[in-house]
Structures are given as structure tokens and as C-alpha cells.
Model the fold of this input.
Amino acid sequence: MENPVIEVRDFRKTYGDFIAVDGISFEVNQGEIFGLLGPNGAGKTSTLESLEGLRSPNSGSLRVAGVDPTREPRKLRNVIGVQLQTSGLPESITVKEAMMFFCAYHGVDARYDLLDRLGLSEKRGAQYHQLSTGQQRRLSLALALAHDPSVLFLDEPTAGLDVATRVELHDIMREQQQVGTTIILATHDMAEAEEMADRIAILLRGQIATTGTPIEITAEGAGLTKVSVRTQNSSLSASGVSFPAVSQQGSKDEYSIYFSTDIGPTLAAIISHIESQKDALIDLRVERPSLEDRFLEITSPGGGR
Amino acid sequence: MTAFIHHFSFEFRAGIRDKQLLLVNYLLPLGFYFMMAFIMPGINPMFLEFLIPALVTFAILSATLLGIPDPLVKAREDGIYRSYKINGVPSSSILTIPALTTMLHLVIVTAIITVTAPLLFDASVPVNWFNYLITFVVMAFASAGMSVLIGVLSSSTRMTVMWSQLVYLPSMLLGGLMLPSSLLPDVVLKISQLLPAAQAMNAFNALAMGKVADFNPWGSVAALFLSGILSFGLAIYMFSWDSRNEGRRGHPLMALLVLLPFVVGVFLF
Done:
């Protein structure tokens, strides 16, 4: 996995006086799904568009599958596939025409099998504006995959999709990963990033606030682990009951809730207390801080760095 | 070449499939043709002598000025150019293919008018078919080029309408489509020489219909051709992939260069 396909070095992008990206560096290895997260205006789009060859960096260097996106646009277009957030297709183009059109410009045969795989075979004759949002996204993905790119850029791929379509798209992303495709996933959906990405970079005000695996990033925070316990005789509800490493506690719907800074001693003490009170455990839930919690922590005013 | 054929094929079909384009490519020119052919001979019997060139020129103005710029601007605003750039669609194709497909639609409409007008309305037919074809091609080329340039320069679809009407409306009034240019006062006739429609009508009438020219008809053909070359050249130079059209090269006033051949013509012819 230590084979960088995307290399970003001291990349800086400005628009007039506004600094959109301020000297960021990161690498993405082959076959990796790399999540690019950040609030609006954090520099995600500028980074993506520069990697896709749509914008030129003010300074720094970019390499995508060994290609300089600014200097070698012809080479770049055959190594990347891009599913844009916006439509990117004329309203009156049919599904079949779109496939023929883009494949012809990539110099490959039309990939109608991808339309079948993505459930669009019945819609070949439908015009783009007649497709549902989900079908438009699936078509966009089919077009991005049609020339077998080694790097795939997905910008909010599942926004506005129903659950079934979302699961289907995630399966396709995993399949692509299996065959060695490197995927850059830009999303506002923290659950999606946590589920799909091998590594994540959170951008904030043009800089990388943090990077790592989803577990590493969530573990970095001040995050308190939430423990919810329900017992038969409500022995935990008695006043004066306290446990080690618990910073806050409360109750809701017959559950006693504890926020622990060190989950091991807290759990051991809770179990021991229940046994000592001859009580019986009905339900116990342990929830670690989510990526969303950590994201909010980083991006809130005064948070992060 | 395969990519060009697929692109051309899609754009041509879009010219019929899209209701707005169907209107400006076919319904408006043909509807106006039938209306004028029924009404105008009763008002001005001489109209039948220049019905064919007038209605062909009208069809060219409608299909190009009203049909080409708007889809170009909308495609840019919708981020379609970004998608095209990523997938290797060259800017020259983005600009020339809609012009070429519009010209093909115009060939069909022109054929309908040219064949039916003598049969249905006893309109005069061209006496020189080769010159008729040449004049049609250069007028369609010049008008399509100007329309593509408007699409490249316009910051929004609203601006597109304004720029297009700046050419379209004076062409209708002063281009010799409704009344012969010879009836215009000398000063207005000189001003009308700045309009592609007036140049086309002059060339059609003199070179194809065997009438007297208001000014040098081959000068009109040359001016239209050069204006078309300048229009496409400037459009390709000033084209921007940016969806907000902020990365455009050159100053918008450079577009006025397309009038240079007509201005020179005013002084030479």
C-alpha cells in the first residue's frame, strides 16, 4: 500500500487576495480510499479541481499517477475519472449518447455493461433531465469509470440518494478499490467517510487540520466515551453512586448515562456495582466518539488547531 | 474522428429534440416564411422577387443568433465545460460543432423554402445557383461565428439575449429583408452595411437573383467570410472553461473586430 499515486507538496492556491489553499501536503497510496473533508470554503474544491487539471496551483507541486495535472492535461484525462457534484451533462443528451460521447473522446469502446451494472440499462434512451437524482449520479459514475481510470475523484457521490442506491454505490467503490483504483472521496457525510475511507484529511481554512485513519482521528480528540446502562432494579439510579473516570453523568428513558475519559475502569466499576447490588444487567451500550463529533470539534470556532 | 462524429450527431439531434432549438431552427423560420409569403405580396408585389433570399436570411439570423449563444452560456453555467475538459473535449469542438449542426439545420430549412416558394407562392428563383450557395454558406458562417462569439463573451443568459438582439433587430429593420435596401436613405444604407444581413441580401440579390447591387456584391461575400473567420478565431481565443467565465483571455471589446471587414467595406464599396 506504500505506493503513492497522488502526491501533493506545499500546494497553494489563491484567488486575488483570498488564500483558498495554504501550502498543504499529503500523499494517497494506490488502492486507497482517501476522504477529503472540511466545511464549505475550507479549500476542498480548489484542491480537487487542481488535481483534476481544472485549475493551476500558485505554488507547490501536484502529481496524479505520475502525471502533472497542469502540464500534461492530455495524459491526465486518461488516468482520472471524475464524478462531478454538478450535472456536467447537457439536459437533452440520452444515457446511451452520453456513454458513446465520453468513451469516444477517451478512445475506448462504449461501456454499456456499466449501465447494466448500475441499473441504467432500461434508461438508455432517456434524456439526462428525465433521470432521477440517483440515476443521474449513477450515470455520472458510469461515465467516470468507463475508461478504467487508475484514480477516481468522487465529489459528494451519494448526496440526495436513497439508502439502497447509496449502498450500491458504496459496493462499487469497494469493488474499484479491490482492483487497485485509488479513490478521492470529497464528502460532507461523516458517516460515509468513516465507513468508506481508509484515511482522511480534514481541511480547515486552507490547511490540513488533521489527517489519519478515521479511528486515529476520532481517538485524537478530547472525546468522551458514552456508556448507557439499564438494569432490572435500577440500582444505578441511587444517589451517591459514582464511578472512576466519569466526567459527566445523567439519565434518560430508564438508562443511566456516563461520559468516561477512560472506559476500562469505568466499565469494570459499573459491572462490579451491579453485581454487588444483586441487580441484573438488561442493556449496556458503549459509544465511542464519532468522526462527526471529532469533525465538529475541529471545525468549531477555537477548535482543532 | 469518431469522437467528432458522436459529438456532431448528438448536437444535431439536440437541435430538434430541444424545444427551444426546434423553435428557432425550424418553427420560427418556416412559420414566418409562410406568414410573410401569404401577407407581403398583397402589400408589396415586388416582395416575391426577393422572398427566397429574405426568408433564408431570416432563417439564418434566427437559428444562429437566437439558437447558438444561449446553450453555450447555459452549458458553461451548468459546469458542463468542466466535465468536457476533464474528459478531453477540445474547446474548438465545443464552439464549432454547434455552429456546424446549426448550419446543417439551415441547409434543410433553406431547401424547404427554396423548393416550395416558387411552387406555392410563385416566388422568383435564383438565376445563379452556385452564387446562391456561396452566399448562403458565407452568411451562415459569419452569423454562426458571431453567435458563437456572443455565447463566449456573455456573462449570463440574460446578457446573451441583449447582445443577440443588438444584431438581430437592426438586421430585421435595415437588412433589406422586408423592403429593398435601395429604398433606404443613403446614410442609413451606409450604416446598414455594418450588418451581416444587409451584406447577405446585397450578395443574394446581385449574385444569385440577377438584380442590381446596392454596393459591391463580391465585397459583401468577402466581408462576410472574413468576419466569420475573425469571429471563430476570437471565440476560440477568448473561450473560458470557467463556469463563472472569469478566466477569459482578452478584453471583451476585442469582439468588435468582427465588424472590421464591414467597416472597411463601407469605405471601399
Summary: Chain B touches chain A through 24 residues (CB under 8 Å). The two ends of chain B are 42 Å apart (CA to CA).
